Amino acid sequence: MSAEPSLPTPSSSPRFGVWLIGARGSVATTAIAGCAAVAAGLHPPAGMVTETPDFTSCGLPALSSLVFGGHDTVDCPLPKRAEHLADGGVLPHGLPSAVHAELVAADREIRPGGPLPGDTDGGSGRTQDEWIDVFAADIRDFVRRQGLAGAVVVNVASTEPAPTDGTLPPSSLYAAAALRAGCPYVNFTPSTGLHHPALAPLAESSGLPYAGRDGKTGQTLLRSVLGPMFRQRALAVRAWSGTNLLGGGDGAALADPAAAAAKNAGKERVLADTLGAAPEGEVHIDDVPALGDWKTAWDHIAFDGFLGSRMILQTIWQGCDSALAAPLVLDLARLVARAHDRGLSGPLSELGFYFKDPVGDGPSSLAEQYAELRRFAGRLRDGADDRGAQR
Amino acid sequence: MSAEPSLPTPSSSPRFGVWLIGARGSVATTAIAGCAAVAAGLHPPAGMVTETPDFTSCGLPALSSLVFGGHDTVDCPLPKRAEHLADGGVLPHGLPSAVHAELVAADREIRPGGPLPGDTDGGSGRTQDEWIDVFAADIRDFVRRQGLAGAVVVNVASTEPAPTDGTLPPSSLYAAAALRAGCPYVNFTPSTGLHHPALAPLAESSGLPYAGRDGKTGQTLLRSVLGPMFRQRALAVRAWSGTNLLGGGDGAALADPAAAAAKNAGKERVLADTLGAAPEGEVHIDDVPALGDWKTAWDHIAFDGFLGSRMILQTIWQGCDSALAAPLVLDLARLVARAHDRGLSGPLSELGFYFKDPVGDGPSSLAEQYAELRRFAGRLRDGADDRGAQR
Amino acid sequence: MSAEPSLPTPSSSPRFGVWLIGARGSVATTAIAGCAAVAAGLHPPAGMVTETPDFTSCGLPALSSLVFGGHDTVDCPLPKRAEHLADGGVLPHGLPSAVHAELVAADREIRPGGPLPGDTDGGSGRTQDEWIDVFAADIRDFVRRQGLAGAVVVNVASTEPAPTDGTLPPSSLYAAAALRAGCPYVNFTPSTGLHHPALAPLAESSGLPYAGRDGKTGQTLLRSVLGPMFRQRALAVRAWSGTNLLGGGDGAALADPAAAAAKNAGKERVLADTLGAAPEGEVHIDDVPALGDWKTAWDHIAFDGFLGSRMILQTIWQGCDSALAAPLVLDLARLVARAHDRGLSGPLSELGFYFKDPVGDGPSSLAEQYAELRRFAGRLRDGADDRGAQR
Amino acid sequence: MSAEPSLPTPSSSPRFGVWLIGARGSVATTAIAGCAAVAAGLHPPAGMVTETPDFTSCGLPALSSLVFGGHDTVDCPLPKRAEHLADGGVLPHGLPSAVHAELVAADREIRPGGPLPGDTDGGSGRTQDEWIDVFAADIRDFVRRQGLAGAVVVNVASTEPAPTDGTLPPSSLYAAAALRAGCPYVNFTPSTGLHHPALAPLAESSGLPYAGRDGKTGQTLLRSVLGPMFRQRALAVRAWSGTNLLGGGDGAALADPAAAAAKNAGKERVLADTLGAAPEGEVHIDDVPALGDWKTAWDHIAFDGFLGSRMILQTIWQGCDSALAAPLVLDLARLVARAHDRGLSGPLSELGFYFKDPVGDGPSSLAEQYAELRRFAGRLRDGADDRGAQR
After folding, report:
1. C381: how many CB neighbours lie within 10 A of its CB?
2. Which family does the entry's similarity section mention (chains A, B, C, D) (predicted)?
3. Do D145 and D282 sit in the same domain of this protein?
4. Which is deepest, A90, A192, B82, D254, by most CB within 10 Å?
């Protein structure tokens, strides 16, 4: 890493790996480029909760100590991908060249991904267990070669359809590889990942912390504050309908009804949990290539007030999913790396703030999830003195 | 009251007064009609937080034990006013006739109001102190004649302009009268009420609880959950703009820039408190008579995500202010009556859940305000055994 | 009809029949009740184009001269149906009782409908031709019994799925019956009706005028003015997406994907015709029972301006389909009755103003369609002197 | 011009001047840069009506034959201004450098502007007539030095407040200068320009064509198609309310109530003309610097359907005013140059398609205005053979 003068990481400070499944996707590219830009002071850390005062002195790895690598099935190099994102307005113009060295460095640490969803062995003749071995070896090599104090594996690949048979879908192969390599695992997508029943024993015996699933970035973020509002005010929600328009790879992936079903399950869980019961209404996800990486989400909520008066709330959210997701990915990598370091294991239900469908039993309203997250920060802080990785 | 068979209030149970300033307005009429309708089981208690499980066994007065009266400067009888509201869709058709007896009973307890804003003595030759005496006598007579265990005074009159000289505006005369009559006071409007410096000594020496001000019913309710969301996610709000369209008396009153200024101050306080700083942006309140008692509020929020990406959230709230306010008025009357009964005094900052510009020092996010309200319910419950007024 | 003093139709003036397929549905009930109400001067003729000055002296049948009847498969009497609509806010409270006599009179002229979509013979053992005969006889009896100068058949029944085999769907049986009974036919729905190839010879040989199909009431009405705007300004529409939320019977019928497909074809035709090419984007129709007869349609239009700048227009339409459709049904009955009287035959392409998917070759922008409609009025007017049916 | 190889304008073809008042503003910069980009084939001519087939062979000056100059009171050079616009997303990245030569050439032809609104003589000691002389000389010099076949003066400066006394406001000084220099005049703003009574004799005697005022770019464009839709369908509009949020210089200028009043008058005229009467409702224009050159316009339209049913249409327009205005400015310069060439004079009411408050007596619905524009193109075409300036 001596060739990257912009990342001041003297050999005496520990460095941490972030291994991204889908490392050449929009979210991963934005996270890698953005980490470098914020570490270098080019941008304020908007959207990063771990950079707010409550998280100081928690012993989180510094942004400048993060080293990126990952798996992907596509070849487009990260610097080129970043240029595409800048053309689409996701990254600021000029950023790809400003962080070119960091993008090149991360790109060198990307290894070929394996079978695509629905494809048993990727034409490789490998068994599922062999795939897991190959992936785990890739991760271990990364940690060793870079001299890292540890690594967190984060799934940011395209949503895969819910599996219909007993075989492990690709997301589960990567999740198993993470544990086999001794790394905590975070599932930022609605794909199966560690949720597969065949992986439950491994998850339990590994002694590793894990978190997920399905990052709560836009429409569902809103729902997690609006749902509690209606409930706290005793207003009866009659119907909650939503339409999402998005282009980019995500739009195309979610145009597959099976993939969309996985995504929508998370959205509906938030409503059912926060309202106490699932209201009428559907959620549509439309692939609209003209919108590129930008997303529009419209929600229409019909509710009854006093004496049955009919009222309506509509929300229109126009955002860029990659820009919403990337800082959360960095947050999660830092929090989970620190949790691992503190010896925490199993499902990190305290991270429900970040997810549509959180592991473990936590509250479903954003405000309570935020309170839990701050308490979690306190737990991490209490042990901040006993180790070297501090900010 | 023996002529009102629908209110089963045996003489052995205590009954409580709700004295409404603006007793013939939309909010008051809806509260009176709705209380009777819900008490009689004609409608579920949608919008009433005090009817949710957390508030059971808190010793709150039963809805059927509430007796209404008040001051107003207009003559239109409550049954006729209720018919108008039914024509405008605020009350269900058929409700005015179903609760006709209760409306007639409340109408009999309405006494003439005093000077209008900007009018020093209403042409009466009375001094301000004499006005306070007259109003206080009206309230005391009501309590005595009805044999009530107590009464709460709630201001639901049209918003008055902020006073520009030292004299007490009408809302403050009524507030002073409440205290002089030994009654707790709730200011559901942005008018001055007890906030006048000349009333501070009286408020302190009275030993009475009070709450306010400016009920949080629609756009500001939303803001009190959206503001915290942006802050918790470290998203930088650049501009928050809003337009409110409303007809009815409220629209006309708020078309007065001075009255609107009072209202807007509360709205802006919520943003500044929840976001940490006031963003760019204005709030408009337009009188649109064609909308009658229905209101549309549009909010446009420009915020920055990761790496300065520009995003926008828009919300459109279409509701009926009277139907949103009335159940909160009933909640407040019950909670404050019980607080008085429990011997609480001074500003009830735990009721910030209900207000744009709450008295005392409480949190500004709805979720935290709700948590405070539940704790408050716990305090009321702890003493529920030592008295007879239970549900 | 001598028992209905509110309809002043002296025996010397001709009276015209309006035979409604789906005569007990929301649209039919609203049309029948509304015709009586407007004729009696209880309401202004909002939404009725034929009551604007351009249509005076065109020889259209007076509203008071219209006599209603029809087919339906359900039993709920019109007065009761009207009460339901008043409860849902579609009809004004008090209207059902004000026009009770007219509703009862129309209800007496409703005959049992036949097979439902997908049901070959309704369990009756009748052949398709026999069904047509029965229906035609019903219509002829109506005309004779009421002593009418003629009748127009208008299909306002629930949308049926597009037929998949060669047999005539129910809507086509009724259309054939209209022609067999010598009556002009109007298809206000997207169902097949006269569009079936097997009916083409009959339509041509009948010498009767006909019009359709699929009334343009809300979202598509908007599209027919917005599409031309974009084209005239040379703005490149990239994607046009829409979601419709509606309850009532219509919502349930259109939740059937096959029925929705029929409806959406018309919506898309309007875009393709007015923009010159079909843009990206989907249309969803969701059944949301909580909305009752009210509909919300959201459209999101992404377009490119100068130098590729990305812009967005969104529209939200909240209306009541029955209230939008009913005056158009009355317009069409009057215009087509008069066209028949004037000896016009075949597809009335000049009525494209009213339809999503008009018969014949007419313009697709609303403004040009309106100009055509006014020219058509002129043609009807030119012959207004040669007959007795004047307003 | 030999130093600008990208504009292939052989000396044998006539070249036409476009003299812009406010030549360094957003609209002017976008028009100049965009004209070069489209002429060079870098972008399709989106938003330019004169590039659609109906305007071929009308003898309009080619884009490559347009030469730009103008007046402005600010110094920022056009290339730098263009970079700012690219940073704000108004111009595509890379465009300023691609058309750098053309921007430099135009910048050399910009002369200092005169007094600002409210400032009688700009501290210069000049009389109004002397200012007009100076401006006219600037324009004549431009035409002579560049060897132009003629020039059109277009006002695209910031909106000035309506003048309150008899003196000519700055926009009128420039308008008078245009006529004195023998050039047609187009007022793309709501400022006074030629509408000043003191200029009426000059306008009449000059024999020059002129057009205006106030370009119809966004919210009002929409209103000019929605207003006719409601009227044609006989739907009674009860209230039409609007809020505009915009940053950039335009937002600041229109935050001045006097300037906003000028702008709003045009918007309201469109409603009153297309609906037949002005409905209830206000229009707000808010300066929101965070939005930069992007504008959001929200409209809320309450209308009554059949039997008084209450319905609502809302529209949200998100666009970039400069990108909407610039192609219209180019259209107008070409059309008016050609009209001048054809010997037309006086108010060009046929150009109402482009304006909120058009000169002369023309229709107010966009569709009819478009039909007029096409007829006007036909008139220009009829004489296309008798001169050299062809495309």
Report:
1. 18
2. Belongs to the myo-inositol 1-phosphate synthase family.
3. no
4. A90
List, for residues A60-100, the tens digit of each pLDDT value: 999 999 999 999 999 999 999 999 999 988 999 999 999 99
Task: Please report where in the chains the tokens 């955002």 appear, as a residue.
Answer: A319
Do C31 and C59 fall into the same domain?
yes
Q: State how many domains chain D has.
A: 2
CATH number for the domain that contains residue D357: 3.40.50.720
**pLDDT confidence of B339, banded at 50, 70, 90?**
very high
In a domain, A391, yes or no: no
DSSP 8-state code for residue C278: P
Which residues of chain B make contact with D282, given a CB cutoff of 8 A? 284, 286
DSSP string, A54-109: GGTTS-PPPGGGEEEEEEES----HHHHHHHHHHTTSSPTTHHHHTHHHHHHHHHT
Rounded to the nearest 5 degrees, what angle is found at the Cα of A137, between the Cα atoms of A132 and A141?
A: 155
Q: What is the CATH number of the domain that holds D274?
A: 3.30.360.10
Neighbouring chains of C at 3+ CB pairs under 8 Å are A, B, D
Give the pLDDT of residue D247.
86
Asked if C57 and C173 sit in the same domain, the reply is yes
**Is the domain of D178 the same as that of D242?**
no
Q: Which of C10-14, C87-91, D2-6 has the highest mean pLDDT?
A: C87-91
* pTM of the complete model beyond 0.90: yes
Length of chain C: 391
Q: Within this chain, do residues B200 and B335 fall inside the same structural domain, yes or no? A: yes
Residues D93 and D172 in one domain: yes
Measured between alpha carbons, how far is A30 from A13 in angstroms, rounded to an integer? Answer: 25
Element (H, E) at D68: strand D66-72
* Domain co-membership, D355 together with D380: yes
C3 vs A: CB within 8 A: no
- The Cα A220–Cα A267 span in angstroms is 6
How far, in Å, CA of C112 to CA of C382, rounded?
A: 40
C221-274 pLDDT, tens per residue? 999 999 999 999 999 999 999 999 998 767 777 777 777 777 777 777 888 888
- How far B182 CA lies from chain A's nearest CA (Å)? 30
CB of A221 less than 8 A from some CB of B: yes
Rg value, chain B, Cα: 20
SS3 content of chain D, % helix, strand, coil (to 5): 45, 20, 35
Single residue among D290, D320, D350 that ends a domain in this structure: D320
Tell whether C7 is covered by a domain: no
* Interstrand relation of A110-112 and A66-72 (parallel, antiparallel or unpaired): parallel
CB of B318 within 8 Å of any CB in chain A? yes
Token pair of B75 as six digits = 């003559």
Q: Is residue A11 in a domain?
A: no
Cβ contacts of D312 on chain C, cutoff 8 Å: 316-319
Taking an 8 Å cut-off on Cβ atoms, the answer to whether D89 and A89 are in contact is yes
For residue range A168-177, list pLDDT tens digits in order: 999 999 999 9
Whether residue D295 is predicted with pLDDT greater than 90 in this model: the reply is: yes
**Of C301, C320, C339, which one is at a domain's C-terminal end?**
C320
Q: What is the pLDDT of residues C319-378, one digit of tens each?
A: 999 999 999 999 999 999 999 999 999 999 999 999 999 998 899 899 999 999 999 999
C34 at interface of D, judged by CB pairs closer than 8 A: yes
Domain shared by D24 and D143, yes or no: yes
Locus of tokens 């229009």: D283
**Residue B365 within any structural domain of the chain:** yes
Minimum distance, in Å, between the CA of residue A300 and any CA atom of chain C: 9
* Substitution target from A90, A93, A313 for chain D, most D beta carbons within 10 A: A93
pLDDT at A390 over 60: no
- CA atoms of B194 and C221, how far apart (whole Å): 54
**Are B89 and C93 a contacting pair at CB < 8 A?**
no
Sign of CA dihedral B33, B34, B40, B41: positive
Residue numbers of the domain that contains D26: 16-215+323-386
